Fold this sequence. Notes:
Elements: H1 2-5, H2 11-33, H3 54-60, H4 63-74, E1 77-81, E2 84-87, H5 90-96, E3 104-105, H6 107-110, H7 127-141, H8 150-166, H9 173-190, H10 196-201, H11 207-217, H12 219-224, H13 226-243, H14 248-269, H15 286-292, H16 297-327, H17 330-342, H18 349-353, H19 356-369, E4 378-379, E5 385-387, E6 390-392, E7 397-399, H20 402-406, H21 435-440
Parallel strand pairs: 2-7
Antiparallel strand pairs: 1-2, 3-4, 4-7, 5-6
Helix pairs in contact: 8-9, 9-16, 11-14, 15-16, 16-19
Bound molecules: protoporphyrin IX containing FE.
Amino acid sequence: MALLSSLPSGWLAYAIAGILIAVIVRLLYRVRTDPLSHVPNAGLLAPISRLAWAFPHEYRGTITLDLPKLHDKLGPLVRIGPTEVSFYSLDAYDVIHKAGSKFEKDPRVYGGFVQDGHPALFSITDPGEHARRRRLMGQVYNRSKVPLLEELMLHHITHWTRCIARSPQAVDLPVSCRALEADIISDFSFGTTVGAIGAWANGGELAMVAKNDELASWMPVITNLPGLWEKLESLQTCLATITGYQPALWRGLGDFVEWSHNSFNTLTKSKGEDAAINPTSGFPTLAGTLTRSGLPALTALAEAKENMGPGTDTTSASLAHVLWALAHNASFQDELYRDLKRVGFSTDMTTLEGIPRMRACVKEGVRWAGAAAAMLPRVVPQGGVELHGMFLPEGTILTSSPIWYLRDATAFPNPDEFNPYRWMTPDATELRQDSLRDKYYIPFSKGANVCIGNQ
Length: 455
Ligand code: HEM
């Protein structure tokens, strides 16, 4: 204090102003000379920190809606962070997501999905390990296996439709579809259900399901501010130890951990072939099949747990959208009903695939719902890459969302409209060929990480 008071008056103000100017000049110099300075910026502060532009848009949940508007103005490449570039270009998508691509998943984001320290197919970033795991999982996901799942699906669909028929009031579609998919996928993965349909039919959404969804909305915090998230976790652990009170989010997540461990133990207690088999359907379970194939128990458990995310939110959102759209397109619904009646309401997969109106309805529903509304960040490999005349060095994060291409007006005129006829011939008797439309139809992404559940 004595030193400061002995300095000439106004000195402190000059010193602060000087430091500020030096910081700004340094930042401007860095921004102008860094290797991504030629890429248009999403916002003034985007090159300085991803917390300045990307994080607030992720936190509000609007990033996949806001970026296409910026791409319209700024072109196919837009910088959204110091080392991160968003791209809206199918040509670039093909380079980055082609089979055998060297652009690995961004560990900052995919690491946030790892369960108990055991990466599963969705969160594995190493391409070699990913390819080995994918081969193993093909045992239950390949197209040839899908008809074997018919009984399992019908069992839960029947339960669900009966509950809807008995419901005294209007049904909340997203919640009820979520319950249906949660039971199907938990049964498929563990050989037993989380009991979501029962809970929903009794008037409540199952906390295990609702809180896993809520966790997804915290992903921007988990991946951008991992230190803060860890502190929140420790705080709630302390709170629970001292007071016995646990916030609803952690209670729901804890319920799911307990349920999955118990279900996994029950499944793997049975020996030999039985360990892999679902008692209801006779279909091999995911967890049992992976354990039987030599995957360590905790990794097989992580795979089954992680499957609950990508397997249920996408399918339930798509189903809810299709049902809503059918309710608002009465004539199409009537025609589809007649087609299904003609085949005796068969549930055989090949028969259903043979009905053009059914295929058009599902394809348009999946397109229109755009359920995988996430950005899929990848790391530029050694040597960098040139895209749209711009060089992007090794380590740059390149990111895009498959849903942008599904709502692209070039390939899908009036993209916001649910229009199954865009897939059909004018007389609506057959599916119509359209290579541009099919090129843009990438709801399951492409290449090595194409959705394993797409069948
Ligand atoms: C309409 C339904 C679905 C849509 C739109 C969809 C979409 C996607 C997309 C876009 C990806 C790529 C993600 C990335 O690269 O990060 C993906 C991956 C994945 N999906 Fe799906 N999905 C659907 C249904 C399912 C189902 C039913 C399951 C499981 C039963 C599933 C399990 C997975 C898994 C495990 C991955 C990771 C694949 C890998 O990295 O190799 N999905 N999905």
